Amino acid sequence: MNGNYTEKWYMKSGNEGDVVISTRIRLARNLRSYPFPNRMSQPQRQQCDEKIRDALLNGNSALANHFEYLGTNDMSEAEIISLVERHLISPEFARQTDGKLLLMDDESVSIMLNEEDHIRLQVMRPGLDLDGAYETADKIDTLLDEQLPYAFDDKLGYLTQCPTNLGTGMRASVMLHLPALQEKGIIPQLANTVSKLGLTIRGLYGEGSEPKGSIYQLSNQVTLGISEKAAITNLMGITKQVIAQERSYRENMKNDIRTVDAICRSYGILSTARILSGDEFMRLISNVRLGVAMGIIEDINLDTISWLLISAQAGMITAKEGHSLDAAQRDIKRASLVRNTIKS
């Protein structure tokens, strides 16, 4: 892939980066000649993996030359968890890794083989970039479609194991930092409103997860009877309304001495702490991110915060060390990482 797609998505902030952390496009696909993964035998699973891998790696496209082929059996538990933290695999994929395979391009594109579906292709981009992420996903999907017999029905669209993914098989989502809306207690009302518009708002790691650091995922729910373009247009429109609402509440918070104090205290703790738990880090970095976005803190930028949000997670810290760490050891390592990053 060219340089536009090979930068790690969490290395910088992107368009509308004060509110939007990242964009993700995910496509679910299955092969016509195999049962869904939950009914596959081990030999069928291996054959399916090989067909998909060969279709991509041997495809007549420059896209194929940049993918790394990873077997989860060869990874440590920390390495697998770190992939979830970078949003490169799903929590479901991480929970049942035996025989699962992953194709990845520099942490911006990943293809999970035999998760809930035979193919889960996803593209991550910094900031708000639904069109760019979809363009990349569509190119890879077209490359695979040229060589693989997809399970497709003229009425139902792409056939998927879960009926909620029938049709386009596409989930488009944006990761949002919404501290002002959370502080004002607006999130439940927002969730109710967007559900009526075919969207859902969830926690940091998607369905069933809790929001941490005031970070939420807003994504489309409807995949049947709607085109990819229409789904993206709908999500884009609602996202821009949420951005405007968050910014409006932030403006009202600028003159609140308690908000400014919380931001400055958080920055002070992160700059000096010797022990930081994961939950405390997320709470404090959320405050600091808000302070940077509002111009209260100028000694650190959103790019650095985007990197810290991922790099200071438990799996990332453990994987970097190369050996197991208990919670207390991780908390010390996390504090050192954050402190040194801010100072530099």
Essential attributes:
single chain, about 350 residues, alpha+beta, Creatine Kinase, Chain A, domain 2, 8-stranded antiparallel sheet, two-stranded antiparallel sheet, 10 strands, globular, disordered N terminus
Description:
The protein is of the alpha+beta class and 344 residues long. The chain has two domains: 246 residues, 2-Layer Sandwich (Creatine Kinase, Chain A, domain 2); 87 residues, no CATH class. It is built from 13 helices and ten strands. It has an eight-stranded antiparallel beta sheet with strand order 2-3-4-5-1-8-10-9, covered by helices on one side. A hairpin with a 5-residue loop joins β4 and β5.
Sequence-ordered SSE layout with sheet pairings:
Blueprint: H1 3-6, E1 20-29, H2 42-57, E2 68-71, H3 77-85, H4 91-95, E3 101-105, E4 109-113, E5 119-126, H5 130-145, E6 152-153, E7 157-158, E8 170-177, H6 179-183, H7 187-195, E9 199-202, E10 215-220, H8 228-253, H9 257-272, H10 278-293, H11 302-311, H12 314-321, H13 327-343
Antiparallel strand pairs: 1-5, 1-8, 2-3, 3-4, 4-5, 6-7, 8-10, 9-10
Which ranges are low-confidence, i.e. pLDDT below 50, for 5 or more consecutive residues? 1-6
CATH architecture of the largest domain: 2-Layer Sandwich
* CATH fold-level name of the largest domain: Creatine Kinase, Chain A, domain 2
* CATH-level-4 superfamily name of the largest domain: Glutamine synthetase/guanido kinase, catalytic domain
Please give the number of β-strands. Answer: 10
